[in-house]
Every structure is written in structure tokens, then in C-alpha cells.
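Hi R.,

Here's the chain you asked about this morning:
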Amino acid sequence: MSRGVAQLRPFEPGRDGDFDTVKAAHLLNRAGFGGTPEEVAQVAACGPRRAVEQLLDFPDAPAEEQSPTDVPDLSSIEGYPRTFAERRRLLAGKTPEERQALQQKFQMANREALQAVVGWWLGRMVRGPWPLQEKLTLFWHGHFTTSARDERSAFLMWQQNELLRRQSAGNFKQFVKSISRDPAMLDYLNNSQNRKASPNENYARELMELFTLGIGNYTERDIKEAARAFTGWTHDGEQFVCRRSDHDTGEKTFFGRTGTFDGDDIIDIIFQHPAVGPYICGKLWSHFVYEDPEPEICQELGRMLREAGWDLRPVLFTMFTCRGFYSDRAIGTQIKSPIQLIVGTTRLLEVPMPPVRQLAGALDQMGQIPLAPPNVKGWPGGRAWINTSTLLVRYNTCVFLAGQGEAIRGGRVARRLMGRGRDASPDGPRVKLQGASAEDLVDEWVSRLIQRPIDPEKRRILLECISGRENEEHAIRSMIQLIVSMPEYQLC
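And the predicted structure, written out as C-alpha cells:
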């Protein structure tokens, strides 16, 4: 057995080491947005297998179906329906002229509606019942990229977000077919302009290059023929339609096969290519475990995905329970994305999520606004999150969430999409004064926030911050701000 494949063997507590709080916290960070000490203790008691089963036990349904009341609150937007469901009802049964007039009215308030969607989603990441479902939704948002920078409808962005949530751990082949019909995607990659008289190749290219195969597994001829197969695929409002008059019904030759193919046929043929499984499993592993996985890992997981009929849950279960996931190469080595940093800090400090306008400038300057990836490749991630300009913003944002300092202003994209924020700081975490020693307080907060041992010299500095002031709330808050400003806190 190769070293790579050996990494996929189940982690067995005892034989492979203890499943301790460090490993339990690691699981909650990667398969969610971090856990409180109580949540970490529960996971450690469960063991890896049972804990992952619980994390994966979420309904394959959008949030709106999970709970009809869990939808973005649009009630404060002047001239806009209270919910997107009410918006749908208002548009139903209207003439094209009436629909157009209503759409124009709604469009004027679109920026505020988009802000409401972003705030709603961040809230689900912080307090939602299914953290892994939200983490997967974020992953797929960066994979099947669509951006509010270009798609002007907050409703269509929310509808796509719900699609990503519903399909997040389902059947990957069906997922690709569903996203190929998604109105926001059809707009973003210009397939709404793809007609037999003038084929547009954008969606066909990204379907292969980014979504399913990766560069080098298709030809330019394949792109041109696939584009013909997707002609006429567009949408009418929120509904997918195939306009038969714009669809090319002629024969196409794709991957060496000839027929009167449509988009579904193209996807069926793509999924017969041996590169699909290793490609998508490599992206999942790089995102959730560690970057640059061994080729044998990608091949083995790809085989598993194909044999499971493209169902994602068996692959995800294997990833989150295997030795490689709990290895030194994985634990504490991933640079937190800006969203992970903000959501995780809010969760670990157990403070309310600030209004999204307060966070928009920081997210923009750190390089990750939800619903607004920079381009079709999504966010680059990894070391790209850290540079001289983003690092100070990251530190200051964590201090702001801990209850000190002002919200980060600025950000051209943030202002355009969500307007300007207010300056009030959050209250910060509640600090219990129970007569604990300086050593106990430092260890408690390091365990809560960094969740791994730290260098003894850094622990000494934290002790100096509160020695003799263990019962002063201000001193403990200052220590917390030092912890969230440490380089170690940027990693999970």
C-alpha cells in the first residue's frame, strides 16, 4: 500500500494516537467554523466516526425547506417584499409588462436585498444547525462560481445559494446538471446569450476546465461542440427554459462520440472521463485537509466517488475520518479564509454577529466577500490570503470582534454592493470573574481560541498581561485581544 493510500485508512483512536481535544477542534474547524469548548468536548467523547456521522447527518434541502421561517429578512427594505417567497407570489400570474415593471422596482432596492442575503448566510454559518452543510455550501460557491459583481439579482444569487446547500453532499453528477440550469450561472457565464446562430463558448469551457475535468483533458474542438449542445439554455425570470428556436439540433462530435447532443448528453459523456473523480476529489481534499495531495489519494477517492454513483457523502466521510485528516500535515496548517476568520471568531467568542455593513469593508480588504468572488476561478485561498496589506486588517478585525477598535472601513467592492458601515464596536465576549489564577485563565482562553499548544515564550507574555489583575475584566479582555492577534490564530 502506497503512503498516499495509507493516509486514507480510518484513524483509530488508541492505535493511531488519542482522539483528543486538539483533533476534535480540528474536525470542527475544517468541517465547520470552529467549536466552543463544550462542543469540542462532545466531539472528543464521540470519537471521529460517530462525530463525522453526526456532522454529515443534515437534510439535502435548502434552508427555506428546512425551516420556512429561515429566510433572508427583507422587511426593512423600502418598496421590497418582506421575503423572496412574497416576491415570487407578487410576480406570479403577471403579464410580461407587469413583471418587467415590478422587476425594475425591485432592482432599485437590490443592493439592500443582497446585503440581507449575505447577512443571513453569515448568520447561518455562525448559528445554523448544520455547520458542515454551510461549509460545503461555501466550498461549492467558490467552485461553481457566480458573483454579485456581475449578476444583478439578489434573488437569483440567493436561489443559487440554496441550490448549493441542497446539493452540497448529494450526487455530484446531478449537481453539475442542476448548476447548468441555474439562472444566475446561465447569466454569469453568458449562456443566456448562447444561440445556434452565434454560439457562446464560456459555459462549455468552464464546465470542463473548472467544474469537472481540469485543464488538459479536452480540446478546443470539444469546447466548440459542447457550446452548440448548450445553445438555447437560458431562463425566464427564476425558471430555467430551453428555447428550442435557439437550440442547435444538428449532430455534434464530442470526445469522439457523435450525436444530436444537448447539454445533459454532454455532461453524461464528461462523467465517463476518468479525470472527473480524481479532479473533484483533489479539490475537496485540498480545501478540507491539506494542499497538494498525493496523486494516489486523488485517484483512490475518485474511484470511490465513481463506484458510489457520484454520491459525495462516502468520500466526505472517508476524508474526515482518515489518518491523513488528523496528521501533522493537516492540523493547524491551513490559513483561515476571511469568512472562516470572522465566523469562527464570532463563534469562539460567543458574541453576536455584527451587522454585515460593519464587516463588509474588512471582508473586502481581506479579499473575500460572500456572493462576490473575484472571477470565475473563485478565491485562490491558501497563502494568497496573507500579504502585507491583508495581515493588519485581519488582526484589527479580530480585535474589533473582541470588543475593541472600530470597524474596518473602505473597500470599493463593499461600498458598491453593500454601502457604508457604521462604526460601533461589538461588546466583546462576556468575561466571568471567578477568582481563577493567571495560569488557568491563559490556558482556558488559549484552549478556546487557538485550540493547540503555543510557544512557552508567548504563553509567558500572556501571563504578564494579566498577572496581578486576574479579577479585572479589562485585563482579561486585553489578553483575549493579544491571543486573537497572534499568528497562530490565523491558522486552523
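The mean pLDDT is 94.

Let me know if you need anything else.
M.
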